[in-house]
Amino acid sequence: MSEKNYKLVKGLLLLFVGIWLCFTLFPLYWQIITAFKSPAETNLTVPTFWPTEWHPENFVSVFADPGNSKALLDSFIIATGNTLASLVLGTLAGYAFARFPKQAGGENMAFWILSNRMFPPVAILIPMFFLFDAMPWGTDSHLSLIILYLVFNMPLATWLMMVFFRDAPRELEEAAYLDGFTPLQAFWRVTLPLVLPGMVSVGILCWIFAWNEYLFANLFVGSAVRTFTIVIPTFTHGSQTLWNLQMAFSLIAMAPPVMLFIVLRRYMVRGLSLGVVKG
Amino acid sequence: MARITLKNVNKIYPSRFGEVHAVKDFNLDVADGEFVALLGPSGCGKTSTLRMIVGLEQITSGDISFDGRRVNDLEPRERNVAMAFETYALYPNFTIAENLGFPLEVRGLDEPTRKKKIDRIAQIMRLEQILDQKPPSLSGGEQQRVSLGRALIRDPDVFILDEVMSHLDANLKFQMLLDLKVLHRELGRTMIYVTHDQMEALALADRVAVMDHALLQQAGTRNELYRTPANVFVADFIGEPPTNFFEMSIKTNGSALQLSNSDGSLTLSPPASHHTMLTERAAMNGMAKDVIAAIRPQHLSLANGIGSTSSTGSASGSADSASGSADSASSTGSNPTITAQVQINEYLGERSILTLKNGGQAFRALVPPDTATRKGETVALTYDPENLMLFDKDTKQLIA
Ligand SMILES: Nc1ncnc2c1ncn2[C@@H]1O[C@H](COP(=O)(O)OP(=O)(O)OP(=O)(O)O)[C@@H](O)[C@H]1O
Ligand SMILES: [Mg+2]
After folding, report:
1. Domains in chain A and their CATH numbers?
2. CATH assignment, B241-400
3. Is B47 close to ligand 1, i.e. is its CB under 6 Å away?
4. Partner-chain contact A177 B82, CB within 8 Å
5. What are the φ/ψ torsions at residue B371 (nearest 5 degrees)?
6. In this predicted model, what pLDDT tens digit does every residue of B331-371 receive, in sequence order?
7. What's the distance, CA A9 to chain centroid?
8. What is the reported pTM?
9. ipTM score assigned to the predicted complex
10. Domain residues of chain B, as ranges?
11. Nearest CA-CA partner of B265 in B247, B243, B291, B245
């Protein structure tokens, strides 16, 4: 490619990326500036694109209602509990499908599990409600959502872990058997470390799904337990919405997944490329 | 210490496209402390045999025993064997030192003892410089050495080594072969070494087991394989350059006996000791008359008077008379001859390989490097009839 063409292509690329960024970042920008505005400024007929007056205290007044901080905690408990359960179950099931496909039910069984992830969740909304209502822990508890979200996260975890385990050479385990390890020890010491980056990215995906879930949470929980996703709409009273507080609260709710992503970014990239790059 | 016995061992892999019979009725007895090489072309079932011995693969039928104890149902770790894998199987997130020390760790050896053993094996395998690195950053040859080292660091009853030198350059391979031989002598452990390189097998092993198409063809010492190959495959596979084969039939003429090709342009004289047996075969009906005769290029030498000007016809006539004299007196002075035209004269340093042609039959002879024959020249080659190998044309088994 000539120097001139190269510059042209690079220019077009920058232009495209610029336009794309405007579209994706604008809502975020709007969310941030709104979170710092006064209630009056959020309701102007001609909106301001930069707060005339900064109100960082919005981030404190959000927590005037102690229920709001508890909602973040509830969400955290549910997302983390569900992620751990998904990882444990998905890792074991994925290992079984990868190493003992016949005994585990074969390709069809594995695909059936994945297909559980594909149907529209709303289809099982009502049956699930009655099912959980009959359980000793009821619907309005951490445990109910931790278990319910397994319906979506466990198939994903199982399938992805199966792919990672397939890519982990079987001979490493065999070498470990010969070196004197039991199958369980070989799994722990040799195979699991190999798929750890993959496991971390699966964990992040599960956690983010559970953290963000609204539909089921809205129906299942609400008094003893409240997730932040069902708290966000409560900033609307009648015809009036406290836009600044709502935006401040959602910004706070966005922080954990963003931080999680930044901290585990290295693992995430390695995990997602595990299936692509072969040693 | 262990004597390994394989009795009628079979391995059948189920697969989507039908069954793969990878090992068929395998019988082999490996003595305690013996070094046996398993030699065969790619895909003949060597690795499958090893995997059954170490316990990584279910035995479809038959028995494997260590010191008379049946081990079919024992877990790999209960068999006390060490194996180096064809694919290295190094633990990618451990350093080289950790890889080497891993088998010792699980056996509960303390840190200083482990360190001492790692240093010793690293020295033998020439890995001292890279002990802190991790496997993915090593070259193929280095990984192979680590894998071999990890097998050798233990003190098992049996060592199983699967193609452990395939990625080493010639120089290093030569050195490592020597080291391995010494190590075997020091440890006195039973070793089974898999390779498809006959040079490695013949250099290392007390006995070589030759496999082809899932079948054990022959197990024997270097000399047995070389002198009395059980069948055409072994005769062809062992030896470099490959053995010359001639499709012949037995011709009797009174008391004279010869092997002759279909149009009679080429004749060979079997040793006198086989005459009775061959005469009996010739008397039988059908195919028994047809044999495959083989002679190694090493056993053909140029007769005096290279580049004789005699025509092919008279040359074969002289071969006849020569064979006649060989019959009566098998003294070295009067060996039979074959005449042929030189096709290629390949100079290989310490020797030359002549590719020759007699009618439709091509064959090779190993001659001194200074041989000055040119393409198209007609030469006479002599051989000792005792070096002629004869195989049944149907069964391909050795008959004499
Ligand atoms: N797990 C398996 N499932 C099905 N077929 C197999 C399996 N492992 C090996 N085979 C087949 O069995 C035959 C013998 O394979 P094996 O690996 O024992 O050969 P090999 O002598 O070690 O060859 P190489 O020199 O290439 O390593 C081959 O045809 C191979 O395709
Ligand atoms: Mg092999």
Report:
1. 65-234 (1.10.3720.10)
2. 2.40.50.140
3. yes
4. no
5. -60, 125
6. 345 788 888 999 998 888 888 999 999 888 899 999 988 88
7. 36
8. 0.79
9. 0.77
10. 4-234, 241-400
11. B247
